[in-house]
Amino acid sequence: MSKLPHLTTSIFTIMSKMAVDHNAINLSQGFPNFPIDERMADIIMDLAKADVHQYTPMAGYPPLMEKIGVLTLKSYNRVINQNTELLITAGATEAIFAALQALVRSGDEVLILDPSYDCYETPILLSNAKPVRVSLNEDYTPNFERIAQHISHKTRLLILNNPHNPSGKMWQENDFIQLENLLESYPNLLILSDEVYEYIAFENQHISVNTRKKLRDKSIITSSFGKTLHLTGWKIGYVIAPEHLMKEIKKVHQFLVFSVNSLSQAAINLYLDSFEIESVSKLYQSKRDFFANLMKDTPFELLPCDGTYFQVASYKHFSKENDLDFTKRLVTEFGVATIPLSIFYGDGTDLKRIRFCFAKDDETITKAAERLQKL
């Protein structure tokens, strides 16, 4: 008997297969299609002959952990204890899975803010706990009155994603003030802050939970080198949490993967010596603007994109189709694969919106826009 009988083939797999079958341009899955930095390629070749191919310590490669400590201080003015508050993981997905498995107990409830990425619910269910889906406002800002209405004595944890996938929305100062006020009323509530797109922020600076002193002692914060360094296939992330929570997360991590790929950790450690973290936002802001300019000649209405490499667009003023049918038609008739936003909602809310990934080279973006201009 299946533990997860409701799970079927993911929409990301479906749309990518359709893209192949119909020779469509794939703007559905969230990964870059351009080469890695040549400096990183050179580092990998050099390290292939070095002594970096055995297990690292369970918590991570010590030199890289030191670099993460420096990066966290520089970015957020937070000093972390690398021995007790930091864990390098097999991508942010493993960090999220390990944290939820470690901290959520049978019978607990976990609040998920919809639309939400699909990796949150499964570890909750495998903990014999209950995911409680709470919709964001239509502009993807948090609705704290609605959140408070869903908190009960069983509520263990609240998951937030900032910058937000799929919408590209970022939380502002007032959002965090309201969250801090909420936690004063519910002091036992934990926060899992998914910040994998933290270094892909545009006009406004990303506000990390790392900067919120009132939240740090009850927060687990996940990050992704895969997203930041355009190395999604490496699956290298990390998690920052206070010692009393990290102790429990490490217990799960130890028996889930024990340690993370040693060559990748060593390569990232060396690469960070020459990599300018500020270049990430500049790169993707230029791609966002390039894509948006081309999309002016399509009937789509683009919603604001504060961060991430995703652009949400509305088609409600020119089609009444549900978003799944609409995205399938885009593939079969116009040769562009995207993602319908309804799949990010527990109740299938359909606002006639779809998600594009613009983490692509200029040629791909241009060809996709030219096809969409024929709508």
UniProtKB/TrEMBL annotation:
Q: List required co-factors.
A: pyridoxal 5'-phosphate
Instruction: For this UniProt record, give its keywords in alphabetical order, as a comma-separated list.
Output: Aminotransferase, Pyridoxal phosphate, Transferase
Where in the numbering of this chain does the Aminotransferase class I/classII large domain appear?
A: 24-372
Please list every transmembrane segment annotated in the UniProt record, as residue ranges: none
| MF term (GO), any | kynurenine-oxoglutarate transaminase activity
Q: Name one GO cellular component term.
A: cytoplasm
Pfam families noted in UniProt? Aminotran_1_2
Give the protein family.
Answer: Belongs to the class-I pyridoxal-phosphate-dependent aminotransferase family.
**What is the name listed in the Swiss-Prot or TrEMBL entry for this protein?**
Aminotransferase
Q: Which organism is it from?
A: Flavobacterium orientale
